[in-house]
Design goal:
Length: about 70
């Protein structure tokens, strides 16, 4: 697996985990109203919102590089 392919898989995995963490934190916030859960949810969704455009930018930048 090339570094490019690994990087793409890593970014996608991080985005999926970020969405999962954000959803879990929102559920925890609704259950107990903890400010920490709200901060975690905002941070997780913000991180995911940054990762997605970064992944698109990375793919465009290295379009000519092989996956192998």
């Amino acid at each position: 697996m090339s570094l490019k392919a690994f990087h793409i898989v890593f970014v996608i995995t991080a985005a999926v985990f970020g969405l999962g963490l954000g959803a879990w934190a929102v559920r925890e916030y609704r259950a107990d109203g903890s400010t920490a859960s709200l901060i975690i949810a905002i941070g997780a969704f913000a991180g995911t919102a940054i990762l997605i455009p970064y992944g698109v930018w990375f793919l465009r930048k290295l379009r000519h590089v092989s996956y192998v």
